[in-house]
Every structure is written in structure tokens, then in C-alpha cells.
Description:
Helix content is 46%, strand content 18%. By secondary structure, the chain is of the alpha/beta class.
Amino acid sequence: xxxxxxxxxxxxxxxxxxxxxxxxxxxxxxxxxxxxxxxxxxxxxxxxxxxxxxxxxxxxxxxxxxxxxxxxxxxxxxxxxxxxxxxxxxxxxxxxxxxxxxxxxxxxxxxxxxxxxxxxxxxxxxxxxxxxxxxxxxxxxxxxxxxxxxxxxxxxxxxxxxxxxxxxxxxxxxxxxxxxxxxxxxxxxxxxxxxxxxxxxxxxxxxxxxxx
Length: 212
């Protein structure tokens, strides 16, 4: 049973998205770098078809292997969500080159690795949705690395649409404009609804960025 795969699942948006999709009868493939995080996410989905795989989004070999394990269990996914990010306050000049590269590896390169591994199979099938959790609709000088990273994934979505949109792959980003907290303006369940709406959009009405 194909379904949703979430890379970088966690107790906020990741679990909320998983809940929204399994509510529609989908399976959920959950990928995170911590066994504890995976257990917490799986426990939040009682009764659902859930498969967990441990991988760090910056480990290309490990991430590709985890995606393969999920595909072996459930087939080529209908939806893949890249939800990993390093969220930290920093300004230009505060990070070392190594620290910038580490942030970029999670915020952008992991999404590239994920897309490169799963989107061609979606295109071959002529259907699929690839969504990245975005943010920073406007750059913020006190969140320099995150601003750069979210600009990067916004561009990645455009590139994916140009390369694979005609083959039936809907690439999009949900741009979250503030701090996520239950019951607040950026409630994770409300945000998760945007992922579902993107997935079910008719092709003639595809949008590639939703600001929440």
C-alpha cells in the first residue's frame, strides 16, 4: 500500500502530516535520525500502517537506503515530504564555514538527495507529490543560515517542477511563517492540512507554494 513518506519526522509538523495522511487510509514511512523520535512518531499513529527507518538526512548512503527500505515495504510512495531543518538564530559572520555547510546539508542538500532518489520513479509512474517544509517568506538577518536554506528549497521546488512537472510530479513547498505550536497561529494540524490540499489538487490547479 503506497502512501506518504516523511523525512525528518518529528513531534510537530512531521507527526501532524503523518496523521493527516493516514486518516485517508495511507501508509506512513517515517525517517528520522533518532530511534526515540521514530518511536514517538509511530506511537502517535495507532492502528496505522507504519514503517520506520533510521537515517540522517546528511548521510546520502544512509538516507537512500532508508528510502529504499520504505519503498520495499509499501512501493513507490504517493507523497514524499522533506521536513528536516536546522533552526537556529545566527547572523552573517557568526558561523564558521563548516557550520554554514552543516546547516546547508540539512536544509537543502538532504532535500536534493531525497528528491533525486524518489522523484524519477514517481515520474515514471506519471504521478506523485513532493513537498518540502519551507519557511522564511522574507529573509531575516538574525536567521541567516535558515533564510538561505529556505530560499534554496524554494528554488529546488521550481527546478523539480521544470524537470518533472510534465511527467505528473507535483512539487511544492509549504512555507511556514512563524513558530509552530499547538493551538497557536501556526498550529501543526492546521499546517498539515495544507500538505493534504496540495496532494489532492487537480493538475490544472497545481500551486507550488502555500504560505501558512
